[in-house]
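Sequence in, structure out. Go.
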Amino acid sequence: MGMLQEFKEFAVKGNVVDLAVGVIIGGAFGKIVDSVVGDLIMPLIGAVVGKLDFSNLFVVLGSIPPGTGTTLDALKKAGVPVFAYGNFITVAVNFAILAFIIFLMIKQINRMKKEAPAAAPAPAVTSEDVLLLREIRDSLKK
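Output:
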């Protein structure tokens, strides 16, 4: 029973639960970013550049067997080596957008966490000896 109890305490700790929630939300958020990049941003960039789909940008590194299509999927199925840089561009843009969005989120969280400026500490109480010495000093100045 000892090990089961320890596992229960570990699994119920706030940090573990927070981490699990973060991973689940992160996975869902990643899908949203993939959709934004793949369905909204990349078609716009592709239209500006002149190509509508970056995922089909590749360079054939071997010979193409006769009767094989010239699409990336067809070449991969035929076992032809290809340098598929278009998919890398898409993944790199996904990463850049995701990193920027996470940066903005962390920046907002940190702004919300900022504590109010601490009140200035109350002036220290002056001891009686110092007060008497000040009175003597002031009376000597007169």
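Check: The chain has a mean pLDDT of 80. Residues 14-49 form the longest helix (36 residues).
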